[in-house]
Amino acid sequence: MNAKRATKTGKSINITPNDILPERIASIDVMRGIAVLAMVFALAIPPGILSDWMYFAQTPPPAHIHEPGLTGITWVDLILPFFLFSLGIAIPFDLERRKNAKHPFWTQILRILRRTFLIGIVALMFRAINPMLLTASTPIHTSVIGLLGFIALTAVLIRPLPTWNKRFVLSFKITGWIGIGLILGLIRYPDGSGFSFSRANIFLVILMNAYFWSALLSLVSQKKRFLRLGLLGILLAMRLAHPFTDWIQAIWNWTPLPGLYQFEFSQFLFIVIPGTLIGDLFLNRERMNWEMDPFRIHRFHDRILVIGLLSLILIPAVLIGLKYRWVIETTMFAVAILVIAMYVFKRADTAIESFVRQIFIWGAYWLIIGLICEPYEGGIRREDATLSYFLITGSLAHFLLIASIIFTDIFNKHHLFEPIRDNGRNSILAYLGLGYLVLPVLNITGLLPLIIKITPGPWLGTLRAIIYTFLVAVVVRFFTRRNYFLRI
Q1: Between 146 and 88, whose confidence is greater?
Q2: Which of 203, 243, 352, 463 has the most crowded Cβ, counting Cβ within 10 A?
Q3: Global pTM value
Q4: Considering only CA atoms, which of 278, 279, 292, 277 is closest in space to residue 348?
Q5: Whole-angstrom Cα distance, residue 298 to residue 301?
């Protein structure tokens, strides 16, 4: 349904659902871009010299040795959940496109298996082509291996342009697969060892397991969101029972491919499945009444701005409170923010606010449960992950999404977030871009040792990480603007 919006000149213009939420929704890409660039920055941060806020909470500086007794989370611990949540949002879109294209059930199963396999290959290559960390003393041949591996992955994953010759595309992909096979088969590490499944990148392994189960469950439960919630209940029961029940423990620890699969990784469905529920809400947006009265537009903007700010406040408030173990105070503060937000929503009189309110209610629901569970298992942790870790970080992802919707889709400020959005649209390239494109090129050209030399110490080291992240963002934006996408 079309509606009208007042302009500064007093005239009105037509707006449609796609003006607020276009076919490729900017807010989802922006959220994914924030997560992937934060990941790049975290990878580039110099180890051991900064505040413990700059590293995973359970592996603090300077030694970065796992300390299981530590509780709390930092911003670094939010990166993976935010990315997984955005993955969950995207799954219903992919399934809906296949359904509308009349793809039979079995071809969708094959697609899920194919994508799972590709994520596994990237996980293996991510470590295989990085036999040592890139430092000022990294040999040039290591950087060359990294670049060759990046080129091989690009050949396999790149989305062909319509103008490309089909034979060229086929030859390019075959060459890429040959390159991947040679690298995985011939690579040798300083200790003399070669290929091993145990060397797979843990982030991508988690992503692979989470994608497989969430896509499969979403496929069999399309339009049946409560079935997905019911399956989460079964997973919760298995999580609680596996230390005490032999047959459940056997399933929990079963790993046919050590390093690549373990049922325990299914816990991340506590983040991804709620993301699929939000993806369903986005799919239903076109059936909503998006009409906005021009005389109410100012009041609408005031209310929605308050919601955006409250959503952003919740994220650092929960992080700081749980890091310093102010659990009761954090819970009381969070509840107060939620109550204020619901009061603001009570005045909502537009369909857009109703849409945002549904996301907010889901986020509030998971946050309250997570805070109630926080003392269970000794307090929130990412390492030896607690139930509260999945619930709380997943809930905070809801609030980041709400802020992204408000400041990009609703206020229509896409241009302010375009570099971040472009990295979100091309997230695989962004994730690979630091270690296997930007740093190898800097090392081969001799710039890497110079950059490291002139940026010693904690503050300049942080500046170096910012520079690396900026370079990755620029490179990814360059390729994205030319429609060169890496797709799994």
Answers
A1: 88
A2: 352
A3: 0.90
A4: 292
A5: 5
